[in-house]
Design goal:
The protein has 5 helices and 5 strands. With 162 residues, it is of the alpha/beta class. Strands 1-2-4-3-5 form a 5-stranded mixed β-sheet, with helices on both faces. Helix 4 packs across helix 5.
């Protein structure tokens, strides 16, 4: 299982890779969202709604790979999507960790209680199915979220049988 120290090191690696000398100007939300992200290995749907999909990124090599399910934040609002988490997904991929970067319905595009939580659960279930098709080590799987996604990640991790 990936431990908290590994996650902290991954986050530190991402933050360190963003720093340079002289100091770099802090980026605003629009600037971060506009930065290019390498395409995912696989994009697949876990439901029928256009917002019910995820992007699986697989590292180089044969695997099986530990995997992180990423859940984005954005105040539960439709205007904020999953794309910015692709930067973190790419950093994990470079470290040999697969990622499942999940989009879900939010307030303004069909989400809210309980739809958003059902989406997170369905995305986790889809990850279990993907583990049968791709070289994922689901015994070393964790959830990781930012802001509202952190609440979803905790909820997913606490589901019965998770």
């Amino acid at each position: 299982m990936i431990d908290a120290r590994s996650i902290a090191l991954a986050i530190a690696a991402v933050l360190t890779s963003c720093s340079a000398s002289p100091p770099v100007k802090q980026l605003g939300w629009g600037e971060i969202a506009a930065r290019p992200i390498a395409p995912a290995s696989i994009k697949t749907f876990y439901g029928r709604d256009p917002q019910q999909f995820g992007e699986l990124r697989l590292p180089e090599g044969a695997g099986p790979f530990p995997v992180v399910m990423l859940l984005h934040g954005g105040c539960w609002l439709a205007e904020y999507d999953y794309k910015y988490m692709g930067h973190l997904a790419e950093a994990f991929k470079r470290m040999g960790v697969a990622t499942w970067n999940v989009e879900y319905r939010r307030i303004g595009n069909g989400g809210g209680w309980p739809a958003t939580f059902r989406d997170a659960a369905a995305a986790a279930d889809k990850l279990a199915a993907l583990g049968k098709e791709y070289p994922l080590d689901l015994s070393r799987a964790i959830t990781l979220g930012h802001s509202a996604g952190g609440q979803l990640a905790l909820w997913v991790a606490g589901r019965a049988g998770a």
